[in-house]
Amino acid sequence: MAVAFGVLGLKTVAWWLTGSVALLADALESVVNVGASLGALVALILAGRPADANHPYGHSKAEYFSAVLEGVLIVLAALLILREAWFGFQAPRAPDAPALGLAVSAVASVVNGVWAWVLFRRGRALRSPALLADAKHLQADVITSAGVIVGVGLVALTGVLWLDPLLAALTALNILWSGGVLLRDSVGGLMDEAAEPELIERIRGLIASTAMGALEAHDLRTRHAGQVTFVEFHLVVPGEMRVTEAHDICDRIEAALRAAIPKVVVGIHVEPEGKAKHDHAPGGARPVSQFG
């Protein structure tokens, strides 16, 4: 939040010094950064709450709502910027004090770039949709700001005034694209999309290497809920196997998955041989030795 407010202040000063529509567009995007940071903060606080009677699976999906909110704010900012660009085309003007304004904007971009790198590192380490969404937005902001700085500099050097609103419009289109991608990814999380193919294959390998004594694994299902990964599957064991033996196999599989995947929740449905019920989930039924 502190970084977002600081960058907004710097970019507002840069616009005030120059009167550039493109720098105004850059400042308007930073308004979104402030709202997005606040949304991410609230979402992270909610997501950190433990499971309760009304939310037995926890509150981790709150992070996706933050990411969706950020996507919506980005789209709204892009529309506002397009409006300002249109007015700029109607009455183009040369920027005032371009050197000082661009220097201030450059400082703001460096701050944003460093903070985006920090958020990417923490977001990946924590597998946090809210932090990663904020990092992607800031990364797009840095790229946009770099283009604006170059463009406004060209306006000052060449005197071609329509370049300023043109850059503002291009900035808006870039922001609109990044907002659309963010919305798509966030809605995918709310719709319980499966884990990444690489992670699914890793899960299969762990099950295959630790399920000695079982006969078959099938109907593997995965999904992410914020930082939590849910893994469910059916495990077929010999009909004469004792319950305690089947339970030991499940414990061994769960321990391996928890050691390899942070914040994983595992559900195993044990079935005796001859009573297996295949729900035809993706992946099909395979002997445990071939599940990996």
TrEMBL record:
<keyword id="KW-0813">Transport</keyword>
<feature type="domain" description="Cation efflux protein cytoplasmic">
    <location>
        <begin position="196"/>
        <end position="273"/>
    </location>
</feature>
<keyword id="KW-1133">Transmembrane helix</keyword>
<dbReference type="GO" id="GO:0015093">
    <property type="term" value="F:ferrous iron transmembrane transporter activity"/>
</dbReference>
<dbReference type="Pfam" id="PF16916">
    <property type="entry name" value="ZT_dimer"/>
</dbReference>
<dbReference type="GO" id="GO:0006882">
    <property type="term" value="P:intracellular zinc ion homeostasis"/>
</dbReference>
<feature type="domain" description="Cation efflux protein transmembrane">
    <location>
        <begin position="2"/>
        <end position="191"/>
    </location>
</feature>
<dbReference type="InterPro" id="IPR050291">
    <property type="entry name" value="CDF_Transporter"/>
</dbReference>
<comment type="similarity">
    <text>Belongs to the cation diffusion facilitator (CDF) transporter (TC 2.A.4) family.</text>
</comment>
<feature type="transmembrane region" description="Helical">
    <location>
        <begin position="99"/>
        <end position="120"/>
    </location>
</feature>
<keyword id="KW-1003">Cell membrane</keyword>
<dbReference type="InterPro" id="IPR036837">
    <property type="entry name" value="Cation_efflux_CTD_sf"/>
</dbReference>
<dbReference type="GO" id="GO:0015086">
    <property type="term" value="F:cadmium ion transmembrane transporter activity"/>
</dbReference>
<dbReference type="InterPro" id="IPR058533">
    <property type="entry name" value="Cation_efflux_TM"/>
</dbReference>
<dbReference type="InterPro" id="IPR002524">
    <property type="entry name" value="Cation_efflux"/>
</dbReference>
<dbReference type="GO" id="GO:0005886">
    <property type="term" value="C:plasma membrane"/>
</dbReference>
<keyword id="KW-0472">Membrane</keyword>
<dbReference type="Pfam" id="PF01545">
    <property type="entry name" value="Cation_efflux"/>
</dbReference>
<keyword id="KW-0812">Transmembrane</keyword>
<feature type="transmembrane region" description="Helical">
    <location>
        <begin position="30"/>
        <end position="47"/>
    </location>
</feature>
<dbReference type="InterPro" id="IPR027469">
    <property type="entry name" value="Cation_efflux_TMD_sf"/>
</dbReference>
<protein>
    <recommendedName>
        <fullName>Protein p34</fullName>
    </recommendedName>
</protein>
<feature type="transmembrane region" description="Helical">
    <location>
        <begin position="140"/>
        <end position="160"/>
    </location>
</feature>
<dbReference type="InterPro" id="IPR027470">
    <property type="entry name" value="Cation_efflux_CTD"/>
</dbReference>
<dbReference type="GO" id="GO:0015341">
    <property type="term" value="F:zinc efflux antiporter activity"/>
</dbReference>
<feature type="transmembrane region" description="Helical">
    <location>
        <begin position="67"/>
        <end position="87"/>
    </location>
</feature>
